[in-house]
Amino acid sequence: MKACIIIPARYGSSRYRGKPLAKILGREMVLRVADICSNVVNKKNLFIATDSKKISNVIKKAHYNVLMTSSRCLTGTDRVAEASKKLKSNIFVNVQGDEPTINPNDIKKIINAKIKFPNHVICGYDKVHKFEDATNSNVIKVVVNEKKELIYMSRSLIPGSKKKVIEYEYLKQVCIYAFNKNELSKFCLKNKKSQTESMEDIEILRFFDVGVKIKMIKLNSNSVAVDELKDIKKAERLIKIKNKKNEN
After folding, report:
1. Overall number of domains in the chain
2. Confidence (pTM)
3. What Å distances lie between residue 105 and 69, 114, 116, CA to CA?
4. pLDDT tens-place string over residues 158-194
């Protein structure tokens, strides 16, 4: 089955304007993500979807494919859905443009899971690592059932307990998704966010309202998402560590 990767990249982020072009060890973050994705699929099946000419110019200069999308896209997945209309593929993988340390093997796992579970949206998850703060609202916590289907995601600390939980391995979302074209069509059919999605500011929750099940795939991810300016140093430190390991 043919899979293509689409990296949504919006310049005007409310939390971090111009984030895709932030330099990570001298290279624009969106290009670092594209470099990783190019180890998973052929460059002809890799696209950056953006509404920004600034981003588009940087992407073209680096010889990656650009798909221009509307500035009115509500979320990254809406941008992927719009871009997918211009492409022929069985599987569309959304890799967030703020994950410059993501593991290419994790992307491959998501693609393989979509082949195995074609009637589910696929999303990655992992444990919250020791270097992360589970109470941080930028770390999206997940709860899954025995079938590893998503029960709920939240920026709050879930699951909760009446008793004080001393030791608990919280789970977090890893922002790699896989869809087919029909699922993406359902996602953006109403052209508005669902109530829960708006409240949590977590786009994947919209699939609950359109009746699409979400299969969560366990990944071994120690990546750092760049949500704030201070996260750049964390990402750079992790890249340096990985580079040293590769040299050895």
Report:
1. 1
2. 0.92
3. 28, 14, 16
4. 998 887 766 789 999 999 999 999 999 999 998 899 9
